[in-house]
UniProtKB/TrEMBL annotation, chain A:
Pfam families for the chain: Biotin_lipoyl
Cofactor(s) of this protein: (R)-lipoate
CDD domains, sorted: lipoyl_domain (cd06849)
Keyword Nucleotide-binding listed: no
Protein name: Lipoyl-binding domain-containing protein
InterPro entries, sorted: 2-oxoA_DH_lipoyl-BS, Biotin_lipoyl, Single_hybrid_motif
Keyword vocabulary terms for this entry: Lipoyl
Domain Lipoyl-binding: start-end pairs: 2-77
Domain of life assignment: Bacteria
UniProtKB/TrEMBL annotation, chain B:
Domain BPL/LPL catalytic, first and last residues per copy: 36-238
SUPFAM superfamilies with a match to the protein in the record: Class II aaRS and biotin synthetases
Pfam families: LplA-B_cat
Organism: Litchfieldella anticariensis (strain DSM 16096 / CECT 5854 / CIP 108499 / LMG 22089 / FP35) (Halomonas anticariensis)
Record-given protein name: BPL/LPL catalytic domain-containing protein
InterPro entries: aa-tRNA-synth_II/BPL/LPL (IPR045864), BPL_LPL_catalytic (IPR004143), Octanoyltrans_LipM/LipL (IPR050664)
Amino acid sequence: MSTAITVPDDLWEGDSEGVITAWLVNDGAEVAQGDLVAEVMVEKAQYEIEAPAAGVLTIAKQEDEVVEKGETIASLES
Amino acid sequence: MTKPLTTDEAGWVLQRPTVEAGLALDESLLESICQGESRFGLVAWSSTDRALVMPRRHERVTGFPEARRILHDMGWPILFRATGGTPVPQSPAVINVALALRCQVGSSAAHLEWGYRRLGEPWCEWLAELGITDADLGSVPGAYCDGRFNVRIAGRKLVGTAQRWRRVRGSRDMAMLAHGAMQVGDTPESLVDVVNAYQAAVDDPQRFQAGSHVALGQALPGLDLEAVLRGLLERLTD
């Protein structure tokens, strides 16, 4: 089963874009639900993103890539 | 390590840690919310030493190791912070105020703009109380670490603001830390020069303008800041 990791779509108002500032887990690593996996920065705010489920991480957006709210940045295969 | 103050503690104290210990105070404040120990906290600090502070992602910038050496030799070691933005100088001329609180996901209080207004609007009200009637929130072209929610005086940047969000343990709620760094002493040139030295060292052509910044000491000469700071902290607590 695949679970998407997304940027929360209600984190900010308007059309500002964010950027992935850090992946805290390597591509292909196994993570547990609730593990901190990435940081996104928007409007000078660092937002920590957790794994919504357990599984093997596949990164879709690399560090320094621009992201929009609601966008999928990785997936977890379990 | 010095502990952050909470609203449960009597009195407000401007703490005087090193920059590194001050950043740890912010982290400790956020963590106290994440651990469910409290729903609100506040800390005010001004460092005894100085450093150029930036998010860790700057470590990936080409030329960073050399820039770090140059800034260190200038007496401005580089440290990393947990909030977003770009390089900001910390020194005894800067007062930092951070508030942390627990936000319910899905509520109107769970987005970034709300967090910035929760910090910035009481700050403007406090400045008005001190007689500065043209304080507001907004961006400042030419300022370092610019954002949409600086506290401005007549369009010049007085307070830079940033945030960090983290999940509360065992809950869907989020913990928000909103941080404001206010230049109170020295001249804007003295701090802008440090950031511009970093820009030059990493070969970034962008330069910042001292005229885009203002220190509180310029706007209110002779102000006994420690005497009036309590008013700001009380407004932020309301």
